[in-house]
Amino acid sequence: MIFPRLLSSQILASLVVACCFGDGFAAQWVRPPSDAVRAQTPGLIHETFESDSMNTSVGYCVVLPPGYQKGSRRYPVVYWLHGGGGNESSSLFTAKAWHDLYRRQAVQEVILVYPNGFRSGYMDHHDGKVKVESMIIRELIPRIDRRFRTISSPAGRAVHGFSMGASGALKFAIKYPNLFCCAVAYGGGAIDLEKSRSRFILDILERNLKSDPELIRQNNTYHFLKQNHDTVRQRDIRFLMICGDRDSWKASAVAFDTALRDKGIPSHLTLVPNVGHNLRGLMQHQGAAAAVFQDKVFRAHLPQADGRRPQSALNVQETYHSRAEGRKQSFQVVLPPGYSPDKKYPLVVQVLGSNALLPTVDRPFIRIRPTGRGVWGYRSMSRYDVLQAIDRTKQVYSVDEDRVYMIGTSAGATGMMHTAAQRPDLFAGLVPLVAFGNDLPLENFRNLPVRCEHGVNDWTSAIGNVRVQFQRLKGLAYDAKLNEHARAGHGIRKPPLATLDWLFSLKRNRSPKRVTYSCEHPRDGRAYWLRIESFIDPHQVARIDAIQQADGLNITTDNIKQFSLDWSTTPLRAEQRLVVDGQPVAHTRGPAQTRLRLIKPPNWVQAASQANKPAPRAEYGAGAAANLFQGEPLLIVYGTGAGEQGNRFLKEAAELLARTGGPDFKPAQVRFPVRADTQLGDIDLRDFNLLLVGTSQNNSYIRQIAERLPFVVEADRLHAGNRTPLPLRGAVLGFHYYNPEQPRRLIYVVSPYLNGQEQRQFRDNPRRFLAGAPGFKMIDQPDLMVRGVDLRIRREMQLGADWRFVQIPGDEVRTPQRFANRTALAMSHVKVMRHKAGVDIALWWGPNDKGLFGGYDFNWLPALDPMHYTLADFRVRRRETETMTASVSGSELIEIHNRWIKTSELVTWPKVSVEDIDAERRYRIVIPMDLVAKLGIRRKTLSNVAPGPSVMPADVAAQVFDLPN
To answer: Does pTM surpass 0.85?
Structure first.
C-alpha cells in the first residue's frame, strides 16, 4: 500500500476525527435534517430506532422515489454512508443526482437510505459501546426491508460512501457478498490494515480496536478480499471508485482497484481532474455517471426491473454462511418465469435424488436444492444445511411462508421426514418418494399432511417398510396417504400431477388447535406455539400434547421440566383456563410478555415474566458428539507434545475428524478449521466448541482443563464415577462435556492410547470413535465411551442434567464372553422379538452380512469387550428398536435360508434348517424395520406387514446378563 508522505494538517485532523473516537467526542446518533434540507429533498423521511447493538436510539434518513406512493412495486435500495464527522442528514444532497435522472427517465427509481455512522469508521469498536457495522448489517437493513417495499435480495441492494464511508462501503460489499451487488466509493479506497505501518492508521486502530489483531482482521477489507474473492466474482459484484486526482487518498483507490482486478473482479476507477477530498466536487463531476453505473448493475442483476420478464426458469447459485465451519455453503435456487419481488411464491425444498422439478408460468414457485453435505439420510450437519438454506431463501427471495413444501427421494425422503419431524411448523405439506424412514416421532405429523409415492416393485426401499409406517399414521388418524404404483420400482423421481395439485393447495396452519410433539433434545423442542425447554431426564424422550378446549387449553406432558407458549399464536387467551397434567395453573400476561413460561418444581407454575438470565453453563443434552455438529462454530485442536511421529499422527487424526459430521457410511462434506494446541487463543475459546485430539500428556489444552473434568487418567487407567478403574491401552477415550473455561461452549475429547500399528487402524475411520456423530438415537449416546481399536466397547457412561455422571448399578456384573462379537447380541434381540411378537421366526443381520448400498452396515449393534463391559454400561441404552411383522411362504423361507441364513448373513430364532421348513405352509416372521431392504433383494414383497412390538434395551439386558424378567 502506498501512502502520501505528507497529509495537510487540515485533512489529517478531519480524518482522525472521521475514523476514531477521542476522549472528548460524544456520539450524536440522532441528527434530523433541517427544514431547508427537507424542502429541497422530495420523498425524505427521517426515522429513529432503538438499536440493540448500540444500546441507544439511532437516526437514519430515507429518500423515497417519486413513484413510491403511486403503486405497489418494489424498489432497489442504495445505502449511502457519509464521511467522518457526518450524520444521517449530512449527505442528503447526493439524492439530487438521482432525482435529476428520474426526470429524464435515464435511470430506474431507487430507495436511498442514509444511516448515521458518526465517527465510527463503520466498525464495531473494541469496547462494545460503538457497533455501527452490526447496527447497519444486522438491524438497519432488515428494518428497511420490513418497513419499505424494497427488493430484499442482493441483486437489489448496493452500498455507496464517501471517505470514511468509502472504506465502509468497500468493506461491506467484500465482507458480506451475499448482501450487496455493487459498491461505489468516493474519495478513497480500502487499506490493508494488517500490513500498514502508517502512524496515522496505527493510531486509528489503537483508538477503535485497541490494536487487537483479530479485531483488525475483522475490519480489514483486504483480508475479506482474499477470503471471499471467489464468491464476489461468482456473484458478479461490481465496484466503482471515484477519486479526485488531488485527493491525498488517491493512492488507496488505485491500489484497491488493482487488487480487485488481480482477483478477476470487475472494477472501474475514475480520477476527477483538479478535485481534492471533496464530495460536492466529485458529485458535480461524476454523480450522474455513478447513478447510471449503479442503474446498469441493477438492470444486469434484476432483468425484470425495466419491464422485461424472463420466459423460463432462472437458475441461481445461492449461499449461506455456515457458522459451524466459518465458510460459505452453496445451494441451488430456481426462480419461476417472470419472478417478481412484488409477489409471494410457494417454496419447494427438493432434496437428494429427485429429478429437477421446475417452476412454470402456470405453476410458479421457487425451488431450492440443499446439498445436504452428501450425508445419507440428512442427519446431523445435513439437517442444519437444509434449515439454513430455507432461512436464507426466505431472507433473499419473496417466499410465501405458509406454502413451504418438501419433496425428497430415497435417502432424501428419509432425511426430509426426519427434518420435518423436528420442525413441522415450517412446512405446509410433504411428499416423500420411494422411501419414508424409521425411528421417526410419527406423532409430530399431526398438523403436517403427507403423501408418499412408492413403487410396489421397489427392491431398493422395499414397500413393506413404508406400508407399516402408514398403518401407524392411519392409527393416529393423521392426514397421510400412501399412493402405491403397481408397475413402478425405485425409479419414481417426480410426484404425479395429481399429487402436485394436492400439495400446492395446502397452506400451513400457523396456530393449530392441537399440537402433539416429542423430541430427544431441548434444541429440537420447537413446534408451532409450543416450545419444550428443559427435560426432567435428558436420557428419555420428552413429549407434550396440547388441546384447545372451549374454556381454554389442556396440556399433558411427559418428561418435561419447563416449556413455554407463544402468546402471539397460541389458542389460549389470557382469561381462559390452563390445565397442565390435570392441574389448573394460574397465569397472567404482562404488557411486554411474548411467551408464557411454565416450570415444574414439582407442581406446574408460571415462571417469572422477566427475561431469564443466561445460564452459567450450557444446558446438558443427550447426544454426545452430535451436539457439536448442530451448526455452532467448531474447531478441531490437536496436541503437539507427542514427539515428531506422534504429533504427525495427532495432526492427521485431527484433519480426518475435521471432515466429520455425519454417519460412517458417507461422512459429511465439511471442513472444520484445524489448529494446533499452541495456536489456541482466547478468541477461539470464546467463539468455538472444541474437538480436542490427544491426551493430557500431549495436548496442552486438555492438560490445562484436566483437573476440572469429572474423570482422571493415571498411568493410562481411567477413573470415572464409582466405576472400576479401566485400562486405556489399545483404546480411544471419547468424552463430551462443557468447556470448564468457557462454560457456554462444549468440548469433545478424543484421546487415543495407541501404538504405531493401532494408530494406523484408527486412521482408517476415526469417526467410529465419536459417540453420537451420526445423529441417530440421541438419548442412547454415551458421554464417555472407551472403545478398543478393534471396535469393541469397554465402557459407556452418561452424564445427568447436572453434568455429573449418572450412577448406574451393575458394574460388578460382567458381560459373558460370547458377546465379544455382535452375533450373540443379535441372538438376544431375536429371542426377545419372537417372544414379544408371538410369531414363528425372528430374523436379524448375521456376522457375515455384507451390507447394502456400497457396504453400509444397517446392523447398529456394537461389539462388546467382555473383559471390561458390564451391566452398568449396557443400561445407558434406553431407546426402543422398531420392528415389523410379516408373512412368507415356506418356499420363500427356503430361499431366504439358502441365500442368507446358511451363509450366516442372517441369524434367526429359533434356528432354522431346510429340513424343518414346510414349503406349503405360511410362516409369520418379525424383523427390525431396516432388514426389509435386505429381504427386498429377492425381488419379492413381504405379505401381511404390520407394526411389530418395540424391543426395549431392558428386555435385551435380561437376555444378555441372565436377569429375572
So the answer is: no
